[in-house]
Amino acid sequence: MIEMQDVWKTYANGTHALQGVSVKIDRNEFVYIVGPSGAGKSTFMKLIYREETPTKGQISVGGFNIGKLKARKIPYVRRNIGVVFQDFRLLPRMTAYENIAFAMEVIEAPKKVIKKRVNEVLDLVGLKSKANREPSQLSGGEQQRIAIARAIVNNPAVIIADEPTGNLDPETSWGIMQLLDEINFRGTTIVMATHNRDIVNKMRKRVLAIENGNIVRDQVRGEYGYEF
Q1: Tens digit of pLDDT for each residue in 2-17?
Q2: 225 and 207 in contact (C-beta within 8 Å)?
Q3: What region holds the ABC transporter domain (predicted)?
């Protein structure tokens, strides 16, 4: 599903965020990206959904060469990649329903299809009863569930989750992880950057550890393995 071949990312200030990274992530895998702050985790994630482009090397996602993708094709590829952020990034003046529906409206899905699918994902994340509430009327955990619903509404092949539990308490975080695990079980590849040791150690998925722009550990059913 995702492959990086000798990928380097050097920013304008000379910082080598990634240095010769090569890795494969298979369809339906759940992979944690761990490592200290500034190690290159966010850059790794941004390269996958084409927020950044590699300085050197190749990246393919679902068969598309991301680095060489023409601008007009980027929106089509991003339909297959859902992104979940730490700070939710919901549109404040829209209801939960409208926030999710917006992701389908931008690809011009028919209204009937939108209504059916939005209700399906609201049901999946357990918030159908709060469809008409704005983000300010929802708890942090509920906002993140809506953000996840928005990320999956177009049936993406991949979910990129960048610190999705970073602003949540432990109990709420665990609920979010159970939801992501269910989404993964249904066939979606998930790549998640996190500093949450307890979640990584409890769920025992594949772990990629990044330090100084290099993958230093690739462990099946891995543990967090860091002291910060």
Answers
A1: 999 999 999 999 999 9
A2: yes
A3: 2-228
